[in-house]
Amino acid sequence: MPEHTFRLNGEQVTVNVADDVRLLWVLRDVLGVTGPKYGCGINVCKACTSHLNGKAFNPCSVQVKDVGPTDEITTIEGLAGESLHPMQEAWLERDVAQCGYCQPGQIMAAVALVRRAAEEGREITDADIDGIRNICRCGTYFRIREAIKAGAAKM
């Protein structure tokens, strides 16, 4: 088996898997990181949203051969430090979760959105939030929108 090395939540990891294995399966099945959820496996539902070098991406659509030793993958498990990330706190304060399955991907997408807007020197807009394509089967979109705004204000 080929050896693949990359950084995961601040630590370097090495796995021995075939080049074409999707990164989502490496994270979940090989490394035991279950925050990124399997929803569709074809980059549509966004339940697996994580960060690759600080940008939102969907590990269900990336083969492990496409990441290398200098690539940093951050999942919901690596988002918080000593305490919850402000976006995670906002999710709790706004009581967003019902089933909670899609929440890690939505939080990761929201954090990437706020960071991107900050890099551009602006605050997020409703149009930015509308651009998030993470699906929530419970339909808590109003609370998600409010949590993103509250989390952004604390970031």
Global outline: globular
Helical percent range? 25-40%
SSE-based structural type: alpha+beta
- Which blocks of ≥5 consecutive residues have pLDDT under 50? none
Task: Please compute the radius of gyration using only Cα atoms.
Answer: 15 Å
The fraction of residues assigned to DSSP E strands is: 5-15%
End-to-end Cα distance, whole Å, is 42 Å
Order of helices and strands: EEHEEEHHHHH
The major β-sheet equals: 5 strands, mixed
Number of helices: 6
What is the residue-mean pLDDT, rounded to a whole number?
A: 96
- The beta-strand count equals 5
Side-by-side strand order of the widest sheet: 2-1-5-3-4
Characterize this entry briefly.
The protein has 155 residues and is α+β, with helices and mostly antiparallel strands.
Walk me through the structure.
The chain has 155 residues and is of the alpha+beta class. Helices cover 36% and strands 14% of the residues. Strands 2-1-5-3-4 form a five-stranded mixed sheet. The radius of gyration is 15 Å and the shape is globular. The mean pLDDT is 96.
Structure keywords:
6 helices, alpha+beta, 5 strands, globular, five-stranded mixed sheet, 155 residues, single chain
Strand and helix map with partners:
Layout: E1 3-8, E2 11-16, H1 23-30, E3 50-52, E4 55-57, E5 72-74, H2 76-79, H3 86-93, H4 103-119, H5 126-130, H6 141-154
Parallel strand pairs: 1-5
Antiparallel strand pairs: 1-2, 3-4, 3-5
Helix pairs in contact: 3-6, 4-6
